[in-house]
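pasting for ref
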Amino acid sequence: MGFDFQHMMELWPDISKAFGETLYMIGISLAIAIIIGLPLGIVLFVTDRGLFLENRFVKSVLGFIVNMVRSIPFIILLVALIPLTKLLVDSTIGPAAASVSLSVAAIPFFARIVETSLREIDKGVIEAAVAVGATPWMIIKDVLLPEAKTGLVQGVTITIISLVAYSAMAGVVGGGGIGDLAIRFGYYRYDNTIMIVTVVILIVLVQILQQLGDWTSKAIDKR
């Protein structure tokens, strides 16, 4: 069975709903990743050796936790976090439930991107800020974040695109969204039309997100 346009139109309400669920999952997970991952990435950077808040213990502990979460394949993380998901949202299926695992996966991912972006800053700029007596908060707010903003925007773009892939994977365990639609219709019912539509939607979504990210990055890069 090939592509059937009429069949696609009949299932369009389901496709639209799945697309909305995917955006919902990505939106929640991205917000949590930025809220927690940004300060986590900053702490990982400023507590490193030779920097103004050097603390090997904090750096080692946080680094171990971040690496531990990142080392777990997302599909395994989905299953492992079922008890936590049940506790937080009182359900183990649906977009809200999938957002818990997506957030847990995205936080350390984005934190490492933030740390990497901050490492690209010229150390001389940081040393100059320390020399004039700037407080750690002032250095973070007025030096680190402004200097790294281009890399941070690119990091947000990479995180969003990764979340698109993760959200599709969440459909395997009933997380809703495009992935769930592809599993239920495309895989279990051998519906090629739905498989083609879901693949096209994901490709177009990623292309749009990447273009927006590139445009925003260039717009704020004053170098």
